Amino acid sequence: ANAGNIEQLIVCMRPGRLGIPNMSTEKKNNKIIAHCYGHGRAGWSWLWGTVEHSLKNFLNVFGEGDKSQKVTVIGGGCMGLFSAIRLHELGFTNIEVVAKQIENTPSMTAGGYFSPHTEDIQDPEELKLMKEVTKYNYNVFQDIWLKTHPLFKRGVRRIWTYGGAELQQGALESVTGMESLVEDGTIPSAEPVLVDFGDGRKHKMKRFTSFHINGFILMEDFLNQLRYRGIPLRIGTVNSFDEVDSPIIFNCAGMGAKQLNNDEKMLPIIGHLVALQDQDVEGLDYILITKYASKPVSEYKSLAEIPTIYFIPKRQGVLGGTSVSYTHLTLPTIYSVQISVVAVSLKKK
After folding, report:
1. Model pTM?
2. What is the residue-averaged pLDDT of the chain?
């Protein structure tokens, strides 16, 4: 592996939140404000079900109100755009989307494989809710893959997802997130396999079936749906709900929600993505997610020091990278580069 195989380094901030996303609705200063933010690294995986849950809470408060009232959706990521589309489907006729940016948003550069991301949820009620969301989301991705979804028919495909299964060095035993889907019978049990990384040895890994998510294509289709429905998209920044003249607000502002809603549970997750050169994207039918120990585990001070590597097909190549949570924000940026150079060795021959 060498740095010459790296085409581009990308660093983005993901809107993490302690617990689960905020999907509540409240009345404040004569406005109805619905929230759908705080998805962290699970934005695409949690999209469909969290938007539906947010809409359910909103409609419970809205009741039999006038659907011709103006609705402002704050946020140009997948949550904001899909919320606007669903509101239009529900009969709201005066919708606008306000976004700081549309191009190169985390929703466009993100995307990898569908995963429940429920392994760190501690509260039993929250865990129950997100498992329901996960089941709903899995069915939506399956509909898109099978081209039976009423709106979206591209950007999702079946793919193998590999997680490590070794104990001392190399591709270590890792939680991929797919384990809970096996437990509830949604997907088959993982298959034990040997994988050649091109580093002179074969690694014990476990292989799950999942979906590859192409965020760029899905965002294109979301924007096309907005144009088709005549929903205007305005570039701008909202610093306070009081700035918005609409009686109904959908807050999908991502990290901006921390200030907008004074939400101290909001915490950033840094996403490090590294594009590799000369990749046959269509020929890559796998995703890797594993802790990778380049030396024996006993030589690390703690398991937290062992980097997690992702290897993901992307529209501009393949990205190897990692997520660093708010608890590790003191780590230098070079941390991502060191991890990513290891990912270069995973390049398909």
Report:
1. 0.84
2. 83
